[in-house]
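Re: the request from the purification team.
They wanted to know what the chain is likely to look like in 3D before they choose a buffer screen. I agreed to run a prediction and write the result into the notebook, where they can find it.
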Amino acid sequence: MRGLKPLIIVLTIILVTSAITPLTQAQPISAKRIVEVDQYGLVYVYDEVPRTGGLTKISFPKEMLGKLVNYRSPEDPSPELKEDRDVFSIIVHSRGGDLVHLVTVFRDVVRWDAMNARFMLRMSLNPILDERVGEFSIIVKLPSDAEPSRISPNYISEKKEGILSGNTSRIDLTEKRPQTLSIDFTSDKLTLLEITDVDAEYSLPDGFVKLGFRFRNVGGGGLSRISFKLPANCSDVGAEDQLGKLLSSYYPEVRSLDVTLRQQVRVGERGSVSIYFKLPANNPYVKVSDNKFKISPILPINTTVRRYSVKLLLRSMEFVSSDPEPVELVRVYPETIKLTYIFDHMDPFSAENSTIILEYKPLLSIFRFMPYIWIGGILAVVLAAVTCIYLRRPRIALSRVDLSMRRLIEEADSLTASYQDLTSLITSGRIVEKGYVRPRILDLRASIRRHGDRISTIASDLMKSSPELRDLMASLRSSVRRLEQSVEELWVIVHRYLSGRIGRSAFEKRVDRHYKLLKRVYGEFADAVEELRERTK
């Protein structure tokens, strides 16, 4: 026993030392946040927090929910957003690793103090977590020329131009009411820009793109220049506004287009600008294969957009179908179809996930035969001239009113032909065939609207020039408006069916009911047209 006693003491010391050593060497659990203020006012928040099992919850004060633009995590392609009474949380599903990363984008976190001519950054200092951490660090990235005048909390300080940072171990990240990050600063490089509308026009298949922006200067100095980030390898780059071409500089190595506005846009004022460029053959925004286009909206400026309109110009192609459905189809002759799509909200993240899948059918273009057509046309004109010289007949001169009445009848006949094609979709039962009815009803809707607008314009002119026709023209204009409205209501029903919001049975019942109304409204229009014919005899 005496021989074993020293050995037991030595083993005990070794075991105690081995148990204590990991504790002394273990690093404290920490969390990190990076706040970055972008050039036009969006704020990106990067959080790195300890992983807590399969679900990691990162929370923010409830009042920041209305300022949230979007969020993303490399560990989870579809994080879950959950609202509670005091906070909202983004739940990240992850299976491995010690850390979870989350990127959140906010707007209206930076405000403009016009009285003191400065910017004010106000947001929660830290993420709200379910477990405590030993240390928390934060980095704030402002524009490089920023000059802070007030920073809170006081352990954050400026390390170099535009970069502030700090860390602390005296913070509880499980508190539901976190501290506030508060920084007041000035900067000439920052402008709070609000993009209200974007009108994008894609010419297919040549890949020419034009983007029109309407914006408002919300805060900062006067806005004289806007920078855009274009796709790689673009050509034919330029900018313009309503008065013509604008001065611009394109730097292809960094894909930057700097546009100088025609006049400075001050705080509170609105402006507009358009840029245009041609995409390279292989690009991620317009892809084509097997008679299908996959089009992604291009957002070349790092901000949010309230309304993003996409117009696709199909040249020498026939529209077959698309997902989502277009809100409008118009034939722009010759050989061009214009499709319109509307996105209610667009931001840098959602732009990558918003796509239009369009199926088309190639058409034989007549333009390759244009030289022969021109020669034939010239020969026809010469022949007609010779015929007119030797076979002259007395011409009956028509008055301006008679000519307008004849134009009215021609437009009414064209509208009637489109109406008959529309009703044949219903009576034949083919209106329930989504692939068949989709392009046809859009085309007929646009045709009826086009002829209806021309009828209303001619009728309004005749009401002014010929008082004796006032009642007839008023009746004709009123009936064509009701017919257009009835066709629009039918389109709404069809669109709900095509988008899957109502089933086939409910759709057929609604169409049957609306068909009766459509026939009655057309009957009123036909009566007015018949009276018009009697007047022209």
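For the purification team: The longest helix spans residues 504-536.
Please add any questions underneath this entry.
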